[in-house]
Specification:
The complex is a heterodimer of chains A (115) and B (482). The two termini of chain A are 23 Å apart. Chain A is mainly alpha-helical. Chain A is 42% helix and 3% strand. Chain B is of the alpha/beta class and 482 residues long. Chain B has 3 domains: 227 residues, Amidase signature (AS) enzymes (Alpha-Beta Complex); 145 residues, Amidase signature (AS) enzymes; 65 residues, no CATH class. Chain B is built from 16 helices and 11 strands. Chain B has an 11-stranded mixed sheet, sandwiched between helices. In chain B, β2, α5 and β3 form a beta-alpha-beta unit. The chains are: A mainly alpha (115), B alpha/beta (482).
Chain lengths: 115, 482
Amino acid sequence: MAEISRDDVRHIAGLARIGVPEDRLDALVGELNGILAHMEVLQRVDSAGAAAAEDAERTGMPLQPDQGPSVKLERPVAAIAPRTHALDGAPMPSVIDGFILVPRLATHEDAGDES
Amino acid sequence: MTATPESLLAAGAGAIAAAVREGKASATAIVEASFARAAAVDAGPRGLNCILSSDRDASLRAVESALVGGALAGVPVVLKDNIATTTLSTSCGSKILEGYVSPYESAVARKLREAGAILVGKGNMDEFAMGSSTEFSAYGPARNPTDRTRVPGGSSGGSAAAVAAGIVPIAFGSETGGSVRQPAAFCGVVGVKPTYGRISRFGLVAFASSLDNIGVFGRTVDDAARAMEAVSGDDTRDDATSAPLAAPALRTDSRDLAGLVIGKPREYFPASLSAAMRAHCDRAIDALRARGAEIRDVSLPHTDLALPVYYIIAPAECSANLARFDGVRYGLRVEGDGLRGMYEATRSKGFGAEVTRRILLGTYVLSAGYYDAYYRKAQDVRALIANDFTRVWASGVHALFTPTTAAPAFTIGAISDPYEMYLCDLFTVAANLAEIPAISIPIGRIGGLPVGGQVIAPRFGEAAMFRVSYALEAELGGAAHA
């Protein structure tokens, strides 16, 4: 299996939406390759289809009906809002149909469409 | 002679609940004694640092409204800081959730409250339960009550240390790969990882959803059984719990193991296992035999693959679960350049080094071109590991005995290589991968430090697991702590 490079770490950090400082890249390359080296042993195991076969054999637990109760907020919205909001004198979040409204930050176009 | 609150706290959950129910003890005085004990051992630069948050007034108010007839009446408890509570914050040991108070209560917290237990604190933990020492907490490492230069284990190290130090008789943690059993072994207490689905995880902050369990700590097997009985059962809000799933009857007066076959898997006793650990395990196995069990050598041939499989599946699932901590919905927000910049700045600042490492690892093994080689492969090998256990049960074995860890607690700061830390989970991860119950029980000391033995049972086989545990504890007696 190919080793992870600095560019790979930048790429997966982007996918994971985590900012990684340049001075951490080399350390992360070493750490991740060190961990993945221990996973190589799996490539030598004949396991084709084992998970699918187990699923087919397994009787499993009986499933419960998919009709769980809705979960009500147990504390008032004022108590849930971050303390910084209260300290800043910012208004408490508005609630519509049980959902808390959060401020719009940017359009999705700004976020890019990387996948 | 009337028992004092301090002596009841030391005597355990069963004694406290009985005394409170019979009106012989004041739950308020017991909770006060718990806070006094915490003040004596937990605070300060050399303190255990096992409690991250507590509110004495809120706990005393809870006593006033608690039912005195419950199974855990007046019993002070600590919950790991990734279990949602409405009176105390739930930080998961992370800066990204510092000060976060959940708008709803976890199923476990609710069941404990309904049983009369009193929440007195939230337990320190490795950030988002990723670690084996509680050194990865953003709020400083917890310390081992037996030797404060050493770790209590992890990730539920705060909960384990709180029980070992006598702050509470029972506590709750979470298990993804051994995060209850390993700290239980390091701290010299009992730690239980139930069958996947036995205890509702509603309100447990998700780490790796196919592996996560709520787990239980007690100073004795009986207290652990009481705690398990109080919180087990199905819940429509956690679809891993299945209906109908009644709380099991785990407590038993029997200390006899006649008719039970207990397997000794050779892969858990490698040549590298220390002579001291091997001697403690041999003594425990002799104790099981003395109580009437038949001991049989067995093999779980894929055991050495459990750790690599775990460290693919758990990071993969964590990379998805922790995507929600983005600066919008919870806790910390660090402004950045646009939405993307805000996400990256928040997550970079909010997550510690180990959580970042695991999210990156998980993202990598799920990414295009690597999914089949790593994640799908790990799922297939996971099935082989589970099948190893299935075959052993089918051969007539009722439970297995193994060491919980290869060695006792290590010194704080002694392990810096990530994979070396992962090796702490060597004997515990397979039970999580196979979704089966396992318990760690004190079996002795090495160099003055506690070590544990592990009993593993088939899915939903907790009753047999506890029967073995009661007998082992009774037969070892004081030797379990010598």
